Amino acid sequence: MRKKKTKKLKITLVKSVIGYDKKQRETVKGLGLRRIRHSVIREDRPEIWGMIRKIPHLLKVEEVEE
Length: 66
Hints:
Elements: E1 7-13, H1 22-31, E2 39-43, H2 46-54, E3 59-65
Antiparallel strand pairs: 1-2, 1-3
């Protein structure tokens, strides 16, 4: 049986969370981002996209195949 290739998202914090409200800072933390230019790989899921939509001005999102 072949494994289906899953799409993943590379999410990078490109702007500081200083000056933004607590909910936005918590969303960044929930994605696993810690500092500027820190990147994480997450599965392409609706829950992750919901978090990205809350803070698109702070992030850079790229699709990667694994």
